[in-house]
Amino acid sequence: MARSSSSSSSFILILFMLFTPIFSLRECQQRRLEGGGKVALYIFGDSLFDSGNNNYIHTTPLDQANFWPYGETFFNFPTGRFSDGRLMSDFIAEYAKLPLIRPYLEPGIEQDYENGVNFASAGAGALVETFQGAVINLSTQLRNYKKVVRWLRGKLGDGEAETSLSRAVYLFSIGSNDYMSPFLTNSSILTSYSDSNYVAMVIGNLTMAIKEVYLRGGRKFGFLNLGPLGCLPGLRIIQQEANGSCLEEEASTLAMLHNEALSKLLSNLETQLKGLRFALYDFNTNLGQRMNHPSKYGFKEGKSACCGTGSFRGTFSCGGKRPVKEFELCESPNEYVFWDSFHLTEKFYKQMADQMWAGGPPAVKPYNLKSLFQCLD
Ligand SMILES: *[C@@H]1O[C@H](CO)[C@@H](O)[C@H](O)[C@H]1NC(C)=O
Ligand SMILES: *[C@@H]1O[C@H](CO)[C@@H](O)[C@H](O)[C@H]1NC(C)=O
Ligand SMILES: *[C@@H]1O[C@H](CO)[C@@H](O)[C@H](O)[C@H]1NC(C)=O
Ligand SMILES: *[C@@H]1O[C@H](CO)[C@@H](O)[C@H](O)[C@H]1NC(C)=O
């Protein structure tokens, strides 16, 4: 009796070891989230994360979402987020027991700097050429970050600021616009570079950004790879007369090349930059699965957007403030993967956040965000 129970428990132990993800090899000294100092969240990138910075810049409604029906579900008013409700980064802040991270440009935000800051700007890419003049480009996002660092040093003193910056987590969503904007603006930039040189330029600029943050003490990073860009409703319709195919050859291929380069870059940086740790979320696979098998994940519609015009509601008209004024709006955003032609519903963002926060490989690796937030060193 005793014998059989001990052999079954060692069997369970072996099973447990087999299924314990590689986190066990990737341990850092951890503390419990409750108690101890605060771990701040700094957010960089594009419309996946922009919580309202573009409300404050001189741009066009193409890069803004501060009008109905954006925000119609959770907030009940348009905040500037490109969704019906919260974004992935909002859920991550919640899981980290932080308040919603405010946009850098929001007046009076200094008092909240110690929780982190959101620098993201809808439309931004890693390259300054991407939607130039209409967005806060990545290099300006970094300049704003450096201003916050100076402010923290002044407020907390160098030592405490350093501790705070090294415990903080830095989230990036960048790149999609670099690869989509040439198709959306008829820019000829892609014809001047080979695909691999263009990707190298995007990755090169992202690398500079990571190194800037690292230089100021940042050690813990979270990244999303890029979705199957050619299959977003807004690009699908570019395919001749919307026969429903993705713009595979072009945009999705660039995204795949980027994703390979990103994953290679991060492994290299992990060995080059002492103490750097990261969580890389496989947005590409997870969006693809939900587009192709929506019902498996609790959605009814995987390909068409909730809000927009025409086939797949792929014309970027949600809200009627952009060039096309008429638009359709679904009744239940919760049934949709896509909220508008390029962006996702709150329900989808929550699924992403849940996976990136507490999931394991292959969805997120080598760390998940929870373990990065709990990491002491
Ligand atoms: C980057 O963005 C800032 C702020 O929007 C802008 O002032 C600057 O001119 C941009 N840089 C380039 C090269 O476009
Ligand atoms: C891009 O060029 C095509 C063909 O010249 C034209 O029909 C289309 O309206 C242009 N699109 C934009 C966004 O300028
Ligand atoms: C960053 O992008 C610019 C174009 O905006 C490019 O000229 C430059 O070479 C890139 N930098 C790196 C390090 O790749
Ligand atoms: C859709 O149209 C594009 C461009 O005309 C073509 O290359 C592609 O094969 C078509 N796809 C289908 C499924 O018919």
UniProtKB/TrEMBL annotation:
This is GDSL-motif lipase 5. It comes from Actinidia rufa. GO terms for molecular function: lipase activity. Transmembrane segments: none annotated. InterPro entries: GDSL, GLIP1-5/GLL25, SGNH_hydro_sf, SGNH_plant_lipase-like. The lineage of its organism: Eukaryota, Viridiplantae, Streptophyta, Embryophyta, Tracheophyta. Keywords: Signal. Residues 1-24 form the signal peptide. Belongs to the 'GDSL' lipolytic enzyme family. Pfam families: Lipase_GDSL (PF00657).
